[in-house]
Amino acid sequence: MTTLPLFTESFLEESHYRGQEVRHAVSKADSIYGVHAYHTKVPAEAIKPFLLEATRPGDLVLDPFCGSGMTGLAASQIGRRAWLGDLSPAAVHIARNYTTPCDPLSYAAAADQLTSESAELQQSLYGITCHGCGGAARVAYVIWSDVRGCPTCGIENRIWDHRDSGLRKLTCLHCKTPFQKSDGPLLREEPVRINLHCPSCGRLERDPQPADLDLADIDPARIDAPYPRIPFDRSREMWRRGHADLGITEVADFYTPRNLWALARLWSQIENLSDERLRDGLRFTFTAIANRASKRYQWNAKRPTNVLGGTLYIGSLRYEFNVFDLWLRKVRAVTKLFEATSKLASAVEAHLASATQLPLPDASIDYCFTDPPFGANIVYSDCSLLWEAWLGRLTDRASEAVVTRQLKSVDGGKDIAAYGDLMAGAFKELRRVLKPGGRATMVFQNTDPKVWTAVQEAIVVSGLVVESADTLHKAQPSFKGVKAQQEGERVAATDVVLHLRSGRRLQTKRVPVWDLVWPAVLRELEVVDAAEVRRRSTGHLYAVAVAAAVGAGLPTSEITFEMLESRLRERFTFAEGWQSPANVNVSG
């Protein structure tokens, strides 16, 4: 193992964070955080207070489930060293680029060179004629639609033509018979709108013309650069029948032939670079657009560029973005990232490693901050499949700490018991590498009491103990978090933060769980302003309840959304969050 250099000074005034509460909203809207997506990310700004509270300059911080590397980024910004590990090659790739300095000028020059070398291909794939002035223009994006047959009359129905009346339950435009979209056979997919950029007219939109259809109709056999041929089938937890209907049998099928050609050419050019750091930085830029360049970005009238996180879902209406436009925008963002991190000392290492077998000496870690897999919420190996296919290395799924709902154990899936065993192995390793007196902080969330029970049992078996627990919520919720607060959907909207140490919990008088949990929920509603909708959602209050129980060493098996909602309804009304009757505008 490489010896990490010691820091001699802190990059931030520690007194700025000392003594402050960490249970606050943390925004994800900063230029560094958003450079590269990841399935779950705790912002570096949310991690810094924990590091400053538990460590000193030069201390070594561990994150064995490092994901995008935000723990390492936070550590490097305040003068701590960090050792990051993850089972996912994509995670290590992203974390390494977030935390390893790269000369921004050299990077920008290399990116510009790649763009220039692709000019001819850009024109052939995305060059069109403006219908406004007749001059040269380029495709900005194309909206594609499924075309399904009516189960009654067999006539074609473009999903695009139903966009104003709902996309799941359709009424045939010809025979007027209602039918479920899934009951209509998928006949094909076709472009329905072209958005273009003209140097003279600006951004314009039009229905497809014959030339547009010809441009989109590319034979994959013409692609002159290698691309991933990784299979995608029933052996994947996130495989669905809809993928088969669309003819998706391998990773390459997640892209239109046009975008696949553009991506393949860019990737080939990147791989030909001799400078290893620049090559890795440009790979990072590439993977940052790999999902948006795919068919996964669905059209939506309210949120027109959203992707359904935690799945490999492909909507019936979707975007085909110009790959080179995506590339140029991301190059600018990555350049800013490298400018911001170029002054950081190289005090972070990112390694491909299992949390159950860390290549670290005993008692070598001062503190651990980690955000482990949330049970069945996300299957990371599938979510990272597009990235890892291009990188040429896949996650070892046999060692992945997840719970699968579709795949059974005989097919390579995992149940809660298997998940609990892997988490126990990770916690045992954590205890081994922590220095005497060392502490750990774990961010976690799940709405299944069985998963929480597995985590609690894994902590006990490993010889660790929960000292306390509180909550951490992000100022900008996920798509599911928005639904949770607006519609009362049973989705966890807030993370629980567990503070761990080695040892045994002192025996305390056991009390009924709800005798402890319910007062904690009431206190939260008392201190939260009526306008703070998210902190009045069931998802946030559920996290408050779980944190209260886990922090007191009580079982969480009785804490369910159903029980919590039942108690809330007895005293509160749900109107933009749970409100006491006095706070509800009954006239509205």
Report the sheet with the most strands, covering strand number, pairing sense and barrel closure. 8 strands, mixed
Given the helix and strand composition, which structural class is it?
alpha/beta
- Tally of helical segments: 18
Q: What are the low-pLDDT stretches, counting only 5+ consecutive residues below 50?
A: 1-29, 475-489, 584-588
Strand order of the largest sheet: 1-15-16-14-13-2-3-12
Rg over CA atoms, rounded to whole Å, is: 26 Å
Look at the structure and give the mean pLDDT: 88
Distance between the termini: 64 Å
Number of DSSP strand runs: 18
Name the overall outline: globular
Helix share bin = 25-40%
SSE inventory with pairings:
Elements: E1 25-26, H1 44-54, E2 60-63, H2 70-77, E3 81-86, H3 89-99, H4 104-117, H5 119-126, E4 127-129, E5 136-149, E6 156-158, E7 169-171, E8 178-180, E9 186-198, E10 202-206, H6 210-216, H7 241-245, H8 257-271, H9 276-290, E11 317-321, H10 323-341, E12 348-352, E13 365-370, H11 380-383, H12 385-391, H13 416-433, E14 434-444, H14 449-462, E15 464-474, H15 479-487, E16 495-502, H16 513-527, H17 538-551, H18 561-571, E17 573-574, E18 578-579
Parallel strand pairs: 1-15, 2-3, 2-13, 3-12, 13-14
Antiparallel strand pairs: 4-5, 5-6, 5-9, 5-11, 7-8, 9-10, 14-16, 15-16, 17-18
Helix pairs in contact: 1-2, 4-10, 8-9, 9-10, 13-14, 16-17
